[in-house]
Amino acid sequence: MNEFNEIKLRAEQGDVEAQCDVANRYTKGLFFGGVEVDGEQAVRWYLKAAEQKHVKAFYGLSKCFAEGLGVAEDQAQAFAWLQKAAEAGDSLAQRELGTRYSGGVGILIDHNNAFSWWLKSANQGDEFAQFEVALCYYSGKGVALDLSLAAKWYQLSAEQGYGQAQIAIGVCYYHGRGVRQDYSKAISWYRKASEQGSVQAEMFLDDCKSRGLC
Questions:
Q1: Stretch 113-123: mean pLDDT
Q2: Is residue 69, in this structure, part of any structural domain at all?
Q3: In CATH, what number is assigned to the domain containing residue 177?
Q4: Residue 155 placed within a domain
Q5: Model-level pTM?
Q6: Domain range spanning residue 154?
Q7: Which of 121, 141, 177, 206 could pair with 94 in a Cys bridge, judged by C-beta atoms 3.0 to 4.6 Å apart?
Q8: Residue 172: count of CB within 10 angstroms of its CB
Q9: Whole-angstrom Cα distance, residue 80 to residue 39?
Q10: d(CA 58, CA 71)
């Protein structure tokens, strides 16, 4: 019996983790999941796991409805399952829910709700949500403008290696926005972003060199 069949046997016996694993594998295909992609089977197993209140199954169902995988595309259903996962504390769902509120995907644009959900995700350590929270504080969108808090969240995201945040905190240090101006710290962050292939960071470094700062 191969690995997939062993997991599926446990799923059929009611193991909720196995049920969600089987569903995930049906969405990933042979290379990552060891089985052919089958959206209908994915939805079937996600629903079984969701009946046992498995949070990742809520999220999986959201993706299936959003992409029309195994079911007819239905953004309202996608949103409902995503919200269920977010309310249960899933950080990825919280981040995506914030993005939906920000962009008006399946719902009306609501920047306050976008910020609120991004903040929940950011507080769980999601570097992309941390960056979005920083942008909100930087622009005053969905929350009162606060450059010091913007810099704080940019740095938290940057420290996790997110290139855009590394550039952003570099800009904060360069111009003294929310932090004490410090060219050496700005250059250090630009270099970190540059090492990840950022063309923008390279341009900023070239500008610093032209000004004799490094």
A1: 98
A2: no
A3: 1.25.40.10
A4: yes
A5: 0.91
A6: 146-214
A7: 121
A8: 27
A9: 19
A10: 15
